[in-house]
Write a structure and sequence with these properties.
Blueprint (H helix, E strand, L loop, with lengths): L2 H16 L1 H14 L8 H13 L4 H18 L7 H15 L17 E6 L6 H14 L4 E5 L5 H14 L3 E2 L7 H14 L4 E5 L7 H18 L6 E7 L4 H13 L4 E5 L9 H9 L3 E5 L7 E3 L2 H8 L2
Parallel strand pairs: 1-4, 1-5, 2-3, 2-4, 5-6, 6-7
Antiparallel strand pairs: 7-8
Helix pairs in contact: 2-3, 3-4, 4-11, 5-12, 6-7, 8-9, 10-11
Length: 316
């Protein structure tokens, strides 16, 4: 097996392992939903609806999936319950395709801009700083020059954690004293990155949600300051969500998409939960591509989201 094939095999194994709790939960519920049934009828569809909702796919997305399956049932007249697995797989993959999720790019692909600026947002505790560290590792492994900016200046732990990640990965971290202006840190980071021909700049930001107006103003200020140096920055506003929180992740997505122009999502901690269905629902409801998924503690456990692989793994 070639080196590329080996990497793909490892990635697939990590994905399968990371989604194992979700798969177990979905399949056990699905088995109960169709027990004793030979064809997909109204009762099976009602049971299936319950399976999807309790798997954190979300009510709106669940109804959309059920409608699609109902359409197939009415067209084909008779659908065997043994076919339900494949039908679900096809309809969910179709839904993710429509939402432009998971275009299967990778860390070693050419960047659309240099330096490519990523502003990372999300509440405290979702794995935001850890995700930044893992992103830095993956980009560096792909041969890219990476700079990190510690613009979450209100929490000493956030700055310290980012510095530790920077040392672990071997990339520079630009920081200032506690309580410094986050926009100033972002400006310094981009100035240093440009001066040193960086390929990727990742800026951490504060994750307070108790005052949306302040959060919105702060994120807007950071963006405005970045644009003095790079007019198109940030190229990516990445919202990090904790997949294990289920419905709470939807609420966080709702709040942050109101506060700033989020254009990419990272869903973390999928390995410790049976709530992996949240990836499908969030992608569908917010029409924002899921770009990365977190499947474990190791630096290699952050993957670029590939919808085909994700759905195949979920229903394998």
């Amino acid at each position: 097996m070639g080196l590329f094939g080996l990497f793909n095999k490892e990635k697939k194994e990590t994905l399968n392992q990371g989604l194992s709790k979700t798969k177990e939960s979905v399949f056990s519920k699905l088995t109960r939903a169709i027990a004793g049934k030979s064809k997909v009828d109204d009762e099976v569809l009602d049971n299936l609806e319950e399976v999807l909702v309790t798997s954190d796919v979300g009510v709106e997305t669940t109804l959309r999936i059920i409608e699609r399956i109902e359409s197939r049932v009415s067209k084909d007249k008779f659908l065997n319950t043994s076919e339900l697995n494949n039908i679900l797989k096809e309809e969910i993959a179709g839904l993710l395709s429509e939402n432009n999720s998971g275009q299967a790019t990778d860390f070693d692909d050419a960047l659309p801009a240099t330096p490519y600026v990523i502003m990372v947002v999300g509440v405290n505790g979702v794995g935001k700083t850890t995700t930044i560290g893992k992103l830095a590792y993956q980009f560096k492994k792909a041969g890219k020059n990476v700079y990190l900016g510690a613009a979450d200046t209100f929490r000493a732990a956030a700055v310290e954690q980012l510095v530790i990640w920077g040392e672990r990965v071997g990339v520079p971290v630009v920081k200032q004293k506690m309580g410094a202006d986050p926009a100033s840190v972002a400006y310094d980071t981009i100035a240093s990155a440009k001066a040193n021909n960086a390929d990727v700049v990742i800026i951490d930001t504060a994750g307070r949600l108790h005052n949306k107006i302040n959060l919105m103003n702060e994120l807007t200020k950071i963006r405005n300051v970045m644009q003095k140096l790079i007019p198109e920055a940030p190229h990516e506003i990445l919202l990090v969500l904790d997949g294990s929180t289920g419905q709470n992740a939807y609420e966080q997505a709702r709040q942050f998409t109101k506060a700033t122009d989020v254009n990419a999502l990272a869903v973390t901690k999928l390995d410790g939960t049976a709530k992996g269905g949240v990836v499908i629902g969030i992608s569908d409801q917010f029409k924002i591509p899921v770009k990365y998924i977190g499947l474990g503690e190791k630096m290699t456990d952050l993957q670029v989201f590939d919808k085909e692989q994700f759905v195949a793994s979920l229903f394998e």
